[in-house]
């Protein structure tokens, strides 16, 4: 079935063969039927002519022999009937049989003496009782016209064959009625019909095979270029942009090949232009980031000096010194994020994995940002840290991911508690960290953008943490570098949850997550009859390209 679905050449050839067989079968039945009817009609006309001649001979002999009997010559009815049958059969040379049967209308049939035959007279070994039916005999006695019937001629040795039986009521030498039959077997006609049937069947099979071969050749001329185009398209999709179709001739297939090659050249040109532009952009970001570090260091040193001496300034100047230092901090953070992004784009990011208890990573983040959560009116709560959660990870990168998620949750948590959950799979093959907030949540369609670079759920919202819009983009790249997944779920007004799932061993296969993506409290609320919110969560595949994250970049930063 898979071959049937994928191979158009097989389907076309098979369909051609089936349709050809149907057509040949119908034509064969029609032709054989016409031949059969023609043979039967010819046989009927020939048999009727021979039978009429025989009946005329029997009638004339009865008249002549009756005259001789009137002249005083002795004539035996039984002998006479036998001689008549033999005489009539001698002209057929075995092509037909002649049978004389007594008629129920004859006095001799009832036991009277006379010249009527007292038993059947047969020219060959024919079983008259089985060959000539009672209906036929009754019809012959009831009507002096010639009677015909298609039936089966049964021999005395048990063999049988189809045939035509023609009968007529005659008068013997004594003037008594009797029945005279001609039995014409269809032996020759059956041989002719068998020959025609065999010839048609042989020719039909040959025609079907020939049509199948022709269909295969014709379809091959069309399918081969299509298959070639499909293979080249697959190689183009794999990045082999120099692949082209071989074009020969000037027909439609040749024009298709030329159009395909033209399309491939244009695609190659555009892709190369985009790649060059992407390289230039990455180089620009990397170069600018590196070049800005030197003047930024100088500006930082000057800003530190000014900030330390702000007590000697008037209030407005002192406030300006504080703003200068805070904006320099933000500028340094942006440069650090840009440099990290450029390393991911260049494929230069290196994973330094070692066995780490993720509880320590989470606790460090919670201690660092606990005061920020309290200032916003909420708390940072940790769940699932009762036992060690050990995995081979790059602690610095995982801490950065958790820090981004926690700061993001605080920023959008509307002053409510933020819960960080840890878990390890039952088989120990995966670990997970989930950060849950109960703030503004995510609207439908926003999860598709939450990990995109520089994207923000609400750019107009006041921000207290000075994010760059690159935090979640870097976080998802860190997750991919570990072979893990970073996924998001959210509902408008119901908060959001970000789940980081990592293999417990570096390079291990990741099959599932020990934590659900949708929070348990959200399911419980719907279980109590609260209307179901719009589900906007979707997974970010671990195999997404670093330069094009498949989800999006910022419920915040």
From TrEMBL:
Q: What class of enzyme is it?
A: transferase
One GO cellular component term noted in the UniProt record for this chain: plasma membrane
Localization: Cell membrane
| Reactions the enzyme catalyzes | ATP + protein L-histidine = ADP + protein N-phospho-L-histidine
Residues of the Histidine kinase domain: 287-506
Which keywords does this chain's UniProt record carry? ATP-binding, Cell membrane, Kinase, Membrane, Nucleotide-binding, Phosphoprotein, Transferase, Transmembrane, Transmembrane helix, Two-component regulatory system
Q: Which PROSITE patterns does the entry link to?
A: HAMP (PS50885), HIS_KIN (PS50109)
| Record's protein name | Sensor histidine kinase MtrB
Q: Which organism is it from?
A: Streptomyces radicis
